[in-house]
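Table S5 (text form). Sequence records supplied for joint modeling of the three-component complex.
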Amino acid sequence: MRRALKISLVTVTGAALTLSASACGGKKADSGDGGDTKKTIKVGLAYDIGGRGDKSFNDAAYEGLQQAKKTLNVDVKDLEATKGESDNDKQQRLDLLASSGYNPVVAVGFAYAGPLGKVAAKYPNTKFAIVDDSSVKAANVTNLLFAANQGSYLVGAAAALKSKSGTVGFLGGVDTPLIKSFEAGYTAGAKKANPKIKVDVKYISRGTDFSGFSDPAKGKTIAEGQYDAGADVIYHAAGASGNGLFDAAIEKKKFAIGVDSDQYLTAKPAAQPYIVTSMLKRVDTAVFNFVEDASKGTTKAGEQTFDLKNDGIGYAVSNPEAIKDVQAKLDELKKQIIDGTITVPNS
Amino acid sequence: MNRLKNSPLALTVLAAVLALVFAVAVTAVVLSASGFDPLSTFQAMLDFGTKPDSVANTLNRASTYYLAAIAVAIGFRMNLFNIGVDGQYRLAAMLAAAAGGAIALPPVLHQAMIIIVAMLVGGLWAGIAGVLKVTRGVSEVISTIMLNFIATGVIAVLLQKGRLGHQVAGSDNIGTKTIAPSGRVAGIPYPGANLQVFGLIFLAVAVGVVFHVVVNRTRFGFDLRATGLSATAASAGGVNARRMVVTAMLLSGAAAGLIGMPQLLGASYTYGLDFPTGLGFTGIGIALLGRNHPVGIAFAALLWSFLDQSSQILQFNDIPKEIVAITQAAVLLSVVVVYEIVRRLGLRWQQQTVAAELAERGPAGTKEVAA
Amino acid sequence: MSTTERPAHESDPHAPAIELRGITKRFPGVVANRDIDLTVAAGTVHAIVGENGAGKSTLMKTLYGMHRPDEGTVRLAGEEVVLHSPADAIARGVGMVHQHFMLADNLTVLENIVLGAERLHGIGGKARRRITGLAERFGMRLDPDRLVEELGVGDRQRVEILKVLYRGARLLILDEPTAVLVPQEVEELFGNLRDLKREGLTVLFISHKLDEVLAIADQITVIRRGTTVADGVDPAGVTARELAQLMVGSELPVPELRESTVTDRPVLELAGLTVRAGGRPVVDGVDLVIRAGEILGIAGVEGNGQAELVEAIMGLRAPDAGTVRLDGTDVTDWPTRRRRESGVGFIPEDRHRHGLLLESPLWENRVLGHQTEKPNVKGPWIDRRGARADTERIVAEYDVRTPGIDVTAAALSGGNQQKLIVGREMSGNPKFLIAAHPTRGVDVGAQAAIWEYLRAARAEGLAVLLISADLDELIGMSDTLRVILRGRIVAEADPATVTPESLGSAMTGAAAGAGAPADAPAEPVPAPRPPAEDAAPKEDS
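The corresponding structure-token record, covering 1259 residues in total, follows.
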């Protein structure tokens, strides 16, 4: 029994840590409710595992939601997932939003595909959107897709052009098919810019272990290894773990490339000189646009792809110091992608 | 005689209830301190938790929790700490899903095959820890934790395109080949609910019954319990401790292999990146809460599942859902402490009762002795 | 230093150390202590005797603050006190040495003593000086840095006593301290107690070994059925037999065998049995033959290989050399269960560790060790009905005092636990029985009963290996006696002629070491074996 007590202490400590971690995760969404002019619609949003505070994917969705709230004067509700939960929990989360009159409802992440299919069928009058999935098809479901490989292609070229050592790095969070498409675009872009470039690809975790998206310490260790092995520019697609890359870049005084949002703007000052650019995946834009459409009643079902052409994908130029000497080349490549001269591989 | 047997049980139940009340009180304090109204919060949780969909989902979750806790309890019953239930069930579910997707068999056979594969994989994976313990003296706590990591790695390696992994068109998910309808287990409709109750909830019940019967009614179960109660007395009584360790680990692992089955055969039909994780650790807490007793674990699993379920409404009301983690932790901690107190009180109480009964009987029986 | 040694002495230096008046303690439904009066003069050894279950423990718990009496007053050194907890008692200079040692095996002597009392003298040099000082003053040889697991029983007991002294006790309660000791150790303990007394400490000595009580006590109080039947008896004016009759109100049992039942059919044969622990042989080339109807006693100071010998015979420990034959069959490689199934019974030395599942009901304890045998099982199933019925039989036949078979083993008194074990091990007609300290910590009534069961089984052809620290029991109950020293059989003795004293010196090797065979268990056929160092003796059958 004494052992039992010990175990339960461990469990409790674990719970406490989870709790404090989530407490750090940030205040809830509705602090700036302000004016009580009549709200036209209620927007629901369900995050994937990882949730708010990843300074990347989920946060981008949150930004879009906040923007919609401010400019469109809508009511918002965002719900987070629990680690290790099942499809049923996700289904219930969507159901809870839909049944409480939230319309539209945005599901962030591929894991919602199955649950969304069921909930969308039950609430035909509610508009749904899902980010990064095109497997769910329904008259009331919009699939928000991103040609992240195109953006990765451009930053891959940027990396190769900036590299003096002839080696660039790719730091993936988890080797999911999605992140692999980042890798594919990046490698292709780098090779395009410098056919002799070496691309050093590393993943933080693999398979069902999603810790790679939220482990900056491990991200830093691996990035250091990549820098030491010769890479002088590293692009990450690792969510919150990417912060580890920036720390490594500061220490090694080498270049890094951000992902999803313009990370030059959110990074600490010490890291900024080293952030060449960021691959922009405008989840915020996508979410905002979708909400805007919904407020006007003009949502379109089916796939809606965000790419270079419609500026749903891009690269950041907020650090002109670093990017200006290669910008012309990148814009040329961008044009070629848009007009179809270059087809970026997906895997 | 019944008095002697039953009272500690009643005491145990009372203890569990007290612990729950205590936990709820702690939660209420935390809620108040955070500026939320405890009563309306509890009311919201209760309302949400008792909606038909919530009940169905609570039952579903509880059935996997139950299996997880039984797997842990098998080890606990003989003082073996199988911390590796988590890795065992994930690896088992993955390989069983792959087998079920690759081989199509007629219904019944198909499901049976998948379940047997899962039990074998779980058992063998746990068995490694058992063998390491008896041959090399490696603590099962350490080895099972390590095996969890290895299982994660093995799954990552196998769940790749070209190996056991298949990517669904248009999805970022990657999973094993989907199990054909012949290998699925139909859900049970729950009145008023969208969600169906896993058909394999009956598997959980059956495992509970088998656990109870084996532990309490068989020679093997006796050896198992004896080893747990006193390893020295058991081996003096002829129990082969080494063999018991390996067998218990195999059984614990086999039970662990079942944890993923309700979800796999009842909802997912594939082991993908979104398959639930961490159930093995939840199982440890539930086994403790349920005192390793099949009925106790059933209540514990339902309680835990209900709390998880009803916590979903909290963020909807802008209350951190982790509040429920406080409740769960407080229940667990207080219940372990209270059980120990009850155990000691029960023992002492019984000693006194025995002494009392003997004393009452004494004068008649020993009157010839009186000086 | 001196402050901790003289607590609560201010009031009256000549007041009795303890004065209990009209102590009554009721437990739900039973009066455990009724109207007890007890006066213990300071600086004396006062013995409390009584059968198990007579209420000694309840009384001691009252004194040690483990519970409060319902009626009556407790005075310590003339001052009326209410003790709420053992900590209270310790603060007033009352310390208790329990029958079952409460020591951490994997800690050193020093650490065990300091554990929980770190605030007194820290854990460093000061504590060490204090401990060595105490040990010297009371004549206790102890290396503070030895691990407790390496210590023998006598030393462990001294650690317990030191623990109590370290905490500043002026009044020591010793609960059955001699139950686990051999005569020489008992003598040493008594030496220690006399030193304590000389230093002005008071000792409350609980026992039912009346010879010892008479040897050490200045005064004796007899308790029977919860109350004092004689207070402050002078040991000079009473015999052991009279005391015993006060205790139980009946005749005293004597360990003795009647006519010999020894046959010429060997049941257990050990040849060259050797067990090593850490390279050192702890059982060293033991040859033994026990025949049907024979009780062979092994005398030896605890820790000389008896435990390992038993484990090797039971199959709990693989011997490094030699063979074990049972009924002519070589069973050396058999697992424990198979040996048990072939008719080996085992009354273990430590019934709590090896003999019982304390938190399980009696009927499950009936199954333990026999979980493959009728009537406990049917195929792979536990036969609850059969096991329960047979437990009822044992309870009746062996006079196990219990309200029923569903109570846990822990609820029974030591004697009744032991009777249950004896009954269990005798069932299924064993051929061979290991009885290790079968009457240790058992009251006289149970003791007589257990002896009688052994005699009866012997008469039916049972071969018994008897190990005991009670030399009267060993001499009285054995057909043949062997002495074990450092793992070797070094001497044999004739129980008909040997005396406890001569046997005791053979056990310690004193006789052999002095090279004086005359002092040894002299009369028996082969005089004490040469010192253990040279050639192992072979002839023993």
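Note: The interface with chain C takes residues 1, 4-5, 216-223, 225-226, 229-230, 232-240, 343, 347, 350-362, 369-371 of chain B (CB under 8 Å).
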